[in-house]
Amino acid sequence: MRSVVLALALMVAAPGARAVPFSLRSSDIPAGGTIGLRQVFDGFGCTGANISPALAWSGPPAGTRSFALLVHDPDAPTGGSGWWHWLLLDLPAGLRGLPSGAGSAGGAGLPAGARQIRTDYGIPGWGGPCPPVGDSPHRYVFTLHALKVAKLEVPEGASAALAGYMVNANSLGTATFTGFYGRSR
Q1: Lowest CB count within 10 Å: 15, 45, 47, 99, which one?
Q2: What is the pLDDT of residues 152-171, one digit of tens each?
Q3: 130 and 45 Cβ atoms separated by less than 8 Å
């Protein structure tokens, strides 16, 4: 009888138990905060260090076989397409973060098998914020996708749009945060 009561108690408690939510954060960029000069692009009139931020994540959905990270500025004045700042594919399922600087153009700080897709700056790797002078601060949306495949079938030289399509088609869930950056001169 005691084991039946214990089993019922566990069954009743289970629905209220919460799984760890899928989350993404950065020790370099507070969620909803301002992105620092260390991450800002160095070019196009901007004078930042162009170093990708450190990222950490937890609680991916069951069945995750890899991750993809997409960083997008929806406020860029491009006629509606925004601006892609970093597209990172085929991150291993066991990975739970990236160190600062992992997004260098050569990808030396990335785990084996991970790939960077060409950004709207025309090169693969982290391309930091550099909004037009005088614009209101732009939003930089960091979205980590948990994927149901170990490797995406995205060809070398693929566009950001194609990479994004393949990521979304294979996504089990997302974790996101947004940082802001604007410049007055």
Answers
A1: 15
A2: 999 989 999 999 999 999 99
A3: yes
User: What CATH number did the domain enclosing 154 receive?
Assistant: 3.90.280.10
Residues whose CB falls within 8 Å of the CB of residue 20, separated by 6 or more in sequence, listed in order: 58, 59
Q: Specify if 41 maps to a domain.
A: yes
Domain count, the chain: 1
Task: Please indicate, yes or no, if residue 74 is contained in any of the structural domains.
Answer: yes
Question: What is the average pLDDT across 41-48?
Answer: 94
List beta partners, residue 91.
67
DSSP count for the chain of H helices, then E strands:
2, 10
pTM of the model: 0.88
Residue 13 lies in a domain: no
Q: Is the dihedral of CA 163, 168, 173, 177 positive or negative?
A: positive
